Amino acid sequence: xxxxxxxxxxxxxDVVGAxxxxxxxxxxxxxxxxxxxxALSKEGQQEYLRLMKEGKRILVPLLMALxxxxxxxxxxxxxxxxxLKEMGWKQLRDVSDAVWVIFDEAGRLAGILAVYVDDMIVxxxxxxxxxxxxKLTELVRLKAGLHDVGRLLGGLYRSRRWTEQVxxxxxxxxxIFISVGQYADHIARRYFGTKAADSPFAAPGRFxxxxxxxSSAAAVPGTVExxxxxxxxxxxxxxxxWLQRVGLPNLCTSTNALA
Length: 259
Description:
Elements: H1 2-5, E1 9-14, E2 29-31, H2 42-53, E3 59-61, H3 72-87, E4 90-91, E5 99-103, E6 109-116, E7 119-124, H4 126-139, E8 147-148, E9 158-166, E10 169-177, H5 180-192, H6 230-246, H7 252-258
Antiparallel strand pairs: 1-7, 1-8, 2-3, 4-5, 5-6, 6-7, 9-10
Helix pairs in contact: 5-6, 6-7
């Protein structure tokens, strides 16, 4: 609403490998598995094998906030907040730690930013957006830069593809934007076996529930060999987990029971 009133342009962004920008806590160590042996020097490999032969565990100091460390999320959040403050963004703590604003020389609102872990959405003037993207790319790697927000078209999904040059290779990416309500209806139809094949999200060969399109997953009689309906079960559980994460937390208990 604020962005509409201010005639701001709205963009979104995603930081690649966000946590790894923050420094790990002091005295953090990780076990070095054998799969990393090739990353060591010849002398390091010999020392590694010697220590293994003696039955010792090989630990190395953790330098950056590796994904999986219990403090990595908080460390990244603090690191990124410090960088935003250095740029001139102000955190609206009385609203949410996730919301930031920036003002122009005359003290007028020039941009508003919302951050969720490594994802962000920003509304600002074209000048501020160009400046912000330039500053960001000096600090972190953005997936496809700051790009347009995906728009939902008639409840159907929309795909956005792009390529990105990374060192000597080209990476291909794709994002899917869908309607949560339409997808929830699709999951329900899949589970109860009611015309799931007519859903815009049904891929060929993946709409039968479980194997018989005339039956429902809840009404399969008797017992079956383990794994027979594994793929379909994974789709039901995965779909329900996705829904509870993006806006239907009341599904948590029933999803757990279904799993």
